[in-house]
Specification:
With 358 residues, this protein is mainly α. It has one domain: Amino acid/polyamine transporter I, CATH 1.20.1740.10. Helix content is 76%, strand content 0%. The protein has 13 helices and no strands. The chain is globular. The chain starts with a helix and ends with a helix.
Amino acid sequence: MIAGLTIGVGIFSLPYITGKVGILTMFLYIMALTALVLFVNLLFVEVSLKTPNYLRLAGYARMHLGEFGKYIAAAFSAIEGLGTILAYIVIGGGFLYGLLSPFLGGNLFIYVFLYFAVGAIYIFLGSKAISKINFAGILVFFAAIFLVFFNGLGSLKLSNLFFLGDSSHLFLPYGAILFALWGATMVPEAEEILQSDRKKIRRAVILGTVIPGAFYFLFCLMILALSGGQTSPEAISGLQGILGGRVIAFMFLAGIMATFTSYVSVGLNLKKVLWYDMKVKESVAWLITCFVPFLLYLLGFNNFIKIIGFVGAFALAMEGILIVLMYRKISIKRPLFIYPLILIFVAGMIYEIIYFLW
């Protein structure tokens, strides 16, 4: 369950980033950050099990860190949600453009607006139907990846994998990989489904973190072996000269389904955070959820790699810090690893802010 919900839009950025830093550097990053995220997730398991009721992050923060902690958690959850929706609008609109523009024409903005508008309507209606097709979107996405692999077997070039990368991009993978791996919000849901069985929850969290990490690396290898230096920021359009038109169209369709269902799910969750946790009126919560990301897009924030890197290294890292502080609060002893973990997250936040604004 956790693995399926963790694998999302972040995967599309990783082959391009791998092309910048090299296979070995990316492998080391994925290994290290998978271990880091797994460790934080297991800390959250302990926090969740020692807290009565099933809560969202803001609820846990209020119980263990007070009202101030609750509002910090809610604020950063809102930043995470807004940034994630912006990323979905950018890449989902791009997929829609790639799929339909060869037949209907039109510029990129038209398709981005269409993607945004349909999602905003779903979020306004609070549609429950989206959860029913979310799983179908994931299945289509995986089917598309296998289709690319089997159709591209004859075009794989292992020589595309043997390069060292550019040292000037050394820190580029951090935020994007953190974004792609992060699944801490699934821990309370796992606890509820598995009825607080510590052993089963820990096993689910371990598999749900390690499987995406391994899958991401294999995905990077496959895309790079196919497109090499032509690898695009969203992984798909760079394959157009290598695979058949039908395969690329199916990839775009799968990307639209996978990102759209997640876009609406994140939007519905963010609307609830603003409405319930931050006491914003429902109509205003919808306006903020949908139109702030679109306004940011209009203002020129349309670099997919920078967006997810910022969200991963800034908002999600802050969630990690809150989880670490909550674990410290419930621990009888004061574990020494707390401070190095916080330092890693803070250093990543500083770097990503500089990179995002540069």
